[in-house]
Fold:
Amino acid sequence: RNLDILKTFLNQGIIDGNPAQSQSNRQIVNDPTGLGTLGNGNGNSLLFNYDLKNQSMAGLFFENNGTPVNIANYKTVNLRVRGDAVAGMPVKLTIEMRKGGDFASFVLFFKITDQYQDFIFPFYQRLNEIDTMTILVEGDTQGDGLGTIYVDEYFLSTKPYLPNAKPDIAANSGAPLSDEELLDKIEAQAAHYFYDQVLGPGYVKDADDKNFASIAATGFGLTALTILANRFDTGSPNWNRVSYADAKQRAEAIMDDILRVQGLQAQDPSHYGAQGFLFHFVQNDGSRNGYSEVSSVDHALLLAGVLTAGEFFGGSLKTKADQIFMNTNWSAAVDANNMFIRSWTPEGGFTGVYDHYTDEILIMSLMAIATDPNNVSFLKSFYSFPRTENGYRGGTGEEFRLVNSFFGSLFTYLYAHCWFDFEKLGVDKPNLVPGAANPRSVNWWGNSVQGVRSNRQFTLDRSQFFPFSYHSNSWGLSAVQRPDGYYEGQYGAPPFSLAAHDGTVAVYAPLSSMPFFRTIANEPLSDNQAFQVLKFYYTNHHNELFGAYGPRESFNNEGEFSQRYLGIDLGSEVIMMENYRTRFIWDTFKQNERIKAATDKIFGVPSGSDGFTVEVRNINDNQITPDGLMDFGLAPAGTKFANGQQYLKIDYNISIANGALCIYTDNRNYTGQGEGAGLTGQTDRAEFVPVYWSAFDDIQAGGILFTGNPSSEIVMQDRRRSDFLNPTVTQKRVVVDGSGTIMPAISNRGTDTTPIYIYLGADYTFSSAQEYKGVIVIEVCSIS
Structure:
């Protein structure tokens, strides 16, 4: 008991969300079953009667009067606590460690009983000092919002955490399948959930054990119907059950009912929603289920499915999809600061705003813009949230830098990517939106790649504490229904400080992430780190985890497996598997003319056929490199220029005159002065090596000997450059423009038709001895 919070942090009190209405109270009592370690003469246990009936938040705080305490040497947080069987008890306890308003750590405890239990957790430590600790309660076993806990001990310890022994579960496998057969089977099983598990005209059930539907799951379901129709094959046991006609009929029935519900909203918003927005959870007739809210993001997910189905099936379905889409009044969901309002209920009105990045903002903003591409508030909404970049350095030394979401939950880097092809869209263009509040450009595809990979690495870094559920073939921290049936929305990974985890993995998270782990085009499935998870689960946990719709929701380090399927989680899984295999949903969705108009407003380039492919080839044999890396070799002391040992072959299609292919670096780990273009030091991150590039219309035998000649070589720029969006500066990173002019910044380079070849050279003149690396970006850009 190295740092006893109860005895050291003496400024103690109650946290209430609504103090005027709260019935919460605390007192020191004598508890016969307590250990008596409180030792203040008044009792041996802290009793907290909490009230979640009249407020949404309740808990206890413990402050050290503003004086920080160093916790660098502590390994675990320890809590001895019990509930009360008569008064009721919480489902979950949240431990927060803070310094001022900043989080140092965030720990979750479940399975509270009426008997004392010793909860011990190896907390993830983001800050070395804290001055406040809290205990927040959530849920109530009695259902009346009132309950009691007794806190007997609360301390930090320097003793190392001893993980539980791995559960005694023998490895077991499904029937032998090739990798391709396994992926096809699992995608098909997940897709059929959206045809089978429905209510009324086809509203998709929130979960397979629920008697109400989710409009978000229905949006995923409408998209899944297009996959079922597109893959229908009477000769395939995986895809021979739902025909094109079946899927189309179901999609039309759903759309007809949505239109009916929207038509009833003006006269009865308390049952059917308002302004075109449906309630989040609905009954079989589309009316409100229970006390459900209208949720802006869940309606956006519904609309994404509506547009996908309309675009794929065409005809009357496309017309109806457009009617549903345009019936939605997004102005009602955007506040005066151009931020999206989270929810609305008839009883409480509007609640909350999205003021921190999540992928959900991207899909809401683009949907709103698609209804009115010239609406200034909608355009500004895409830049309404802070775009601060943070980092997490994993156990391997690799640093992941990104604009992180609030909880770091994997789904917050995923949802918009199910439909929008951000990989092809490239970096957004804040200069196209005058008055953008946060005018820092971001490549959202690259951002999600970093977020998902950081999630994986953090799980691996914590595997010593949870060896059964956390390892290279089992990872994924995301909002999920736990094996005990409780839905936990705060699971996540750095770079955000909460990093809430307890050994529970969300199975859908890695299965939805296959596109983010692609190594090369046409890669063997065995090389994809997300597919490796599916293969491991199938060959080791088949009996416990797999059912009619593939792997179920979650499992934990104690060997407890969920028996449930959730619609929204299967939805991202089936869509991203299909996108990984064929890009079918991305390519279908982007054909919608309203979506094209929206992406043009934000990304400045057509989202249709314009695009390119890149191959990294060796100069010595012209073969594709297996790892996709360019290497400048080991440069001896005194070296000035080192030539790249590979070149880039780019096949491209640019259909408009102001379109172009651009090249630059994105060195987010650089810490020195200036932009840090080219290669950056891996030991001293304040150093960089300038890189030059040159483009040609054919292969240059033996490569290029770089000298820094400005008439044929251009210095690489980095995205950090302060005038990156200046048209004159942009011109100097153009490889080839829409007219076929090669390197237009250099007038004597001529014209070309696809492909084009790029060679690189590095200038080590002023560099110290260390390893240097860089991240090269090729994108379709807009020039003027």
The longest strand covers residues 146-157.
